[in-house]
Amino acid sequence: MKKEYVVVRIDASPDGAPYVVISLTSPKDFKEQNQQQLPSFGSNVAGFTNMDDMVKGLNKMMSGGVFGMPGGVTSLKLEMREYKDLGLSVGDRVVLEMTKPETLGI
Asked: What pLDDT score does 3 carry?
């Protein structure tokens, strides 16, 4: 099975290990995300009066995806050597191919 993706985010390892996390989404979702206008952060920004309100707001934000990312994000963990060899950057198109090895015999 082959599937095409667009790199939408590249993050360092959260524990400081020598790997990166690459977040991918389908080209269709990437186009839709880019066509949406960003909300203006003016006087409509609401402050939190207590911790419960903040947690409720955080849950609403996370329900759509991780930190504002769309829900259909695929993540890959790559070693630093693999990441450098591929030379990936945000916006690059990549193709992933998955195959299941056939087992013969027992």
From this structure: 92
